Amino acid sequence: MLQEKDKSNPPLKDVGIRLGWDDEQIAIWYNRQMLKKEEESGSDVDTPLGVFGYRVDVRKKGEEQWLSQNSLILQQNTALNNGRIIISEAGEIVEPGIEVHPSAHGDSKGAGFWLPMYFSSWMGKPISIADKDAEDINMLHPDKMIKPRPDIDNTINSIPKRTFHPYAADPRNNIPLVYGNDYQFRVRLMDISGGGPAVTEKALNGGEKPVADLHFKRHIAAGVLKITNISSVYDNLPSTTVADIKDTSILQNLITIDNPVLKIQRPLLGYPAVVFTGKYNNVIDKLKAILNDLPADEKKGIDIGLSDPDVSSFKVQVEIKSLEMDNGRSENGKESYIVLYQKEYNFDEGNFDDDVLLNIVHKDEKQLTFTEGYNDTGADYDLVLPTSRHIRLTFIPIIKHADNDYADLSIAEGKRITLTSYLPGADETGLLSPIDGGFKAVYLQPEHAVDQHQIKTFKNKITLQFVKSNTPVELSRLADAFKITAHNLTLEGEKGKRLQFGCSKLMRHSLAPDSSSISFSSQAELFNRWIIGVDYTLLRDWAWDGLEKESFFIYRKWKREGEVSFSNEVLAGIINVSDTVAINALHEPERTYSRLLFLDAFDPKEVDSLLPPEIIISYRIEVHFKKKGIPSVIDPEIKDKEIHLPVTIIPAQIPKLVSAGIALSPYVSDEEKYRSTDLRQRFLWLEMEEGPRDRNDTYFARVLSNAPDPLLCSISEELKTYDPVDAPLNINDEKIRTIIPGMDNDFAGMGAMQELLRGDDNSGKSNFYMLPLPPGLHADSDELFGFFSYEIRLGHKKELWSTAQGRYGRPLKVNGVQHPAPNLSCNVIRRKIPLFEKKLKDVLVANKVERLRKDSGQILEKPSINIAFKNEVVITAQFATAVLNGKNITANPPQTSLWYMLYAQVRQADGLSYRNLLLSSGYMPYVPPKRRVLAKNDVVSKEEGGKTGIAILKVEDIQQRLVELGLPKENSLSVLCVEMFPMDNMWHIEGGKHDYANAERLTHHLYRLASENRLCVRPK
Asked: What is the tens place of the pLDDT at every residue in 564-581?
């Protein structure tokens, strides 16, 4: 027997139990009869066969009596010679046998003959006659058959076979065949005369398996559930006119809004399977009545069968269609339908023809979770369907008795019928949610090529650093700003997340057919423009399909900061929401939402390239729902979403310097006797060729480098090799600048340069600007004795919001700039120096005698010493100090000279004020510290601080000079010191070494020159 293990395709019709027996023996018998000669002797073969037929007996397992399934009752007399010779009479019992015949498949000589797979079939009726019930149920009578049409080609001209039924089943041997019962079978042999053992006899010589046991169970799956709404569609078609037939596979064509009910009946079960259930009374009569009760004039197709009594319930499997390519959660892994939930409904067990009324409930759902199931399935006989989604409904009949006893486990679920459903939602609020405010503007700066293939030198070795990635770093920065990924010139979403792109036509690009990625034609598309991302989350699951193909229209308008009205609104672009998902999004996917990202481009030069303003851009998003299903309740339109953008265009004007000078504060003196004057504040001013053309711009300056005055410093090797490199502009490189709504002026770039102070000429258009001191310096800083290199640029004022890279324009480099030198103060003191008449030796003797007197206790007379005093005026002032990088490098001795001027205050002739009268002027030399021989453990001390010039004047000489001028000796005096460059630089020694002997000789020479002034004390 063929043992079939594949149960995926159950049989379509049940034919009962197929029987076979002694197949090997019968094959041997037939092979003997087919031999013409003996193979060894070559003589003729004489093999008569005594077995002419077979009789089959059946009984239920556990019973003793066998029932012959060959036993028949004659329905009429059997006679020969026109009825004159009667062979058998009506009512007699006969037991014809079953013959087994081989058959050939084509070439009988080459391929031989084959025995049939089964010798007979039993389905609870005699196996030796035709089934008259099947003929009656299907009305297979000549008067009921459709007549052939010979006038039409390709028609089957089948002449109904005229059948006769001279035999009937023997009721004494009747045994019904019912699912779930166990049966036993045996076979009796019949000779050529029709004789053989009777059904009541026992076998004398039992074979290896004289009796076969078989458990009969159902292998026929339940048919398709009967949805009466479908037949109603066809029944309601007009009979006289042509009408369009609705697609009955669509749920919305079967129900109405007023009556959303599906009527479900049990599937039909045909003959003889419905008889095998044993659950109907008079089942044959009910089957025959199906065709008999039809009106004679009604012509329609009809299935013959009764409601399957084994189907006790059915379930509906609700599947929602996800995006194309999203096949991971489908049942077979080959389609995009995902099971949302399953719900089971019960039939009435007492009425096999009862209808189940299934109430269809459509519900608006925002987001469905594909992993947690669907819990809101409604009442017992409700079928809840989410709106705005393509749904597949699968109706599955269930046989609960499929327990491998009554029915096979493989047919627990019957044949399926599928309907599709789509109904637009009525409430589509909460559709979009902004990401980072919904709008994000990005401005990219190009990366220099040296950063791509950088070359470094280290210890005479060259190191090449090649970038292995083909993705431009600028595109990577853009991707990081929007939290997406970049590859080569392509942007795509993160893994596991669906992203739908849109892009402005101002950037040359290529959009993927499923809108999941965008590729730019070149890297240059990213620069010199704002890239504004309209970034929203679509708060709908992947199965939601409520939008047109062109889903979101993005509109843009702009205005300058401070203006009232916007420009005309233009269409920036469209986001096409595709019904296909990218492979990248299928890695651990998040199916509850999608992301929408539109990349708009806005060129600031569109507004004004010469006088760039701040820009305010306003966006509006228009949602396009499906035209045949526009929801009645939607969110307010997303409009007037503004984003404020700073200036990115540098000033086009280039500075041109015309002149420079020193600005002084007002002159303030001692009004009483003109004895002193206040220090005047001094500033360096610059005259530019013209003022800023943009009222939002002004001039800025910064120090590139500085160096000391070479006439003040010692020319050392360090100074010779000092070559400062201009420092780059210390502003944020802003490789990417990101702006989101609500941001305001952050003064980017301010502080990198100093703003020049514009002169006040009452018109506000002065071309004169004061240059502030460099940061970190004050008016008395020693660095101001040196020179500076400045960079001057036009820049946007701090009140104008600008990016750091767009703050300053092109530079003008100015070398040799010198700020006003610091004020060096002079000090004047008057002192008295005692003068002794006795020699020093006498003083020492006197001191010794004094000590002896104290030791001996004697009273000795103390020697008398006459003391006189010398009155002098001492004038001191510091030399200018040269500083390099905070280090004092002033020449030693100084290369400049200090001179004093002594004034006397004299009242004017009109008596209104005083004037200064020059009494004397003279040189103030620098006296190096005296050298001494260092001991072994002494530490060399280094002179700290600045160097000082000194001049000493006798008071009596000053008084004499005042008398000569007719002034009183007590007249008030004032002193002014001036530092001057000498004509000849004789202090500096080449190589940085100093010849102190020569230096001392020169010092005495200068003292000699100064001594010609009789007011000056000549040094010893």
From this structure: 999 999 999 999 999 999
pLDDT at res. 938: 61
DSSP 8-class letter at 629: G
Query: What phi, psi does 8 have (nearest 5°)?
Result: -70, -25
Q: Report d(CA 67, CA 641) in Å as an integer.
A: 92
CB within 8 Å of 332: residues ≥ 6 apart: none
Neighbour tally for 288: CB within 10 Å: 18
Q: Which residue has the higher pLDDT, 946 or 767?
A: 767
State the distance between the two ends of the chain, measured CA to CA, in whole angstroms: 146
Which long-range contacts does 509-517 make (Cβ < 8 Å, 24+ apart)?
A: 512/582, 513/578, 513/580, 514/578, 514/580, 514/581, 514/582, 515/575, 515/576, 515/577, 515/578, 516/492, 516/578, 516/581, 516/582, 516/584, 516/585, 517/490, 517/491, 517/492, 517/493, 517/582
Per residue in 173-186, pLDDT tens? Answer: 999 999 999 999 99
For the chain, where do the domains classified as CATH 2.60.40.10 start and end? 226-237+246-267+308-423
- Highest mean pLDDT (candidates 54-63, 667-676, 913-922): 54-63
The partner residues of 707 in beta bridges, in order of sequence, read 787
Taking the CA atoms of 583, 586, 591 and 594 in sequence, report the sign of the dihedral they define.
negative
Alpha helices in 686-754 (DSSP H): 717-720
The answer for residues whose C-beta is within 8 angstroms of residue 202's C-beta and 6 or more apart is none
- Distance set, CA 894 to CA 116, 212, 946 (Å): 133, 135, 10
For the chain, what percent of residues have pLDDT higher than 70? 86
Do 639 and 567 form a contact (C-beta atoms < 8 A)? no
The answer to whether 94 touches 74, Cβ cutoff 8 Å, is yes
Task: Kindly report the CATH class assigned to 226-237+246-267+308-423.
Answer: mainly beta
Strand partners, 920: 902
Q: How many CA atoms lie within 13 A of 731 on its CB side?
A: 22
Express each pLDDT in 611-662 by its tens digit.
899 999 999 999 999 988 888 899 998 999 999 999 999 999 999 999 999 9
Closest C-alpha among 218, 57, 65 to residue 126 = 57
Q: Let me know: does 617 contact 532? Beta carbons within 8 Å.
A: yes
CA gap 407, 402 in Å, rounded = 4
Please list, in sequence order, all residues whose beta carbon lies within 8 angstroms of the beta carbon of residue 188, skipping any fewer than 6 positions away: 54, 55, 56, 57, 196, 197, 199
CB atoms within 10 A of CB 711: 16
CA-CA distance, 340 to 342, in Å (whole number)?
7
Nearest CA to 526 among 489, 498, 500, 497?
489
- Residues 324-361 as b/e (b if ≥16 CB within 10 A, e otherwise) read eebbeebeeeeebbbbbeebebebeeeebeebbebbbe
Determine whether 546 is exposed, middle or buried from the number of CB atoms within 10 Å of its CB (0-12, 13-18, 19+): buried
794 pairs with which residues across the strands? 699
Structure tokens at 812: 């003008």
Residue 201: burial class (beta carbons within 10 Å; 0-12, 13-18, 19+): exposed
Contact 625, 545 (CB under 8 A): no
7-42 burial: b if 16+ Cβ within 10 Å, else e: eeebeeebebbebbbbeeebeebbeeeeeeeeeeee
| pLDDT reading at 45 higher than 90 | no
- Please, what is the average pLDDT of the chain? 86
Q: Tell me the per-residue pLDDT of 858-892, one tens digit each, with 9 for 90 and over.
A: 555 555 556 677 899 999 999 999 999 888 888 88
The pair of three-digit structure tokens given for residue 780, joined into one six-digit string: 């008395």
Please report the pLDDT score of residue 797 as a whole number. Answer: 95
CB atoms within 10 A of CB 813: 10
Structure tokens at 967: 């002034």
pLDDT tens, residue by residue, 763-815: 778 899 999 999 999 999 999 999 999 999 999 999 999 999 999 999 999 99
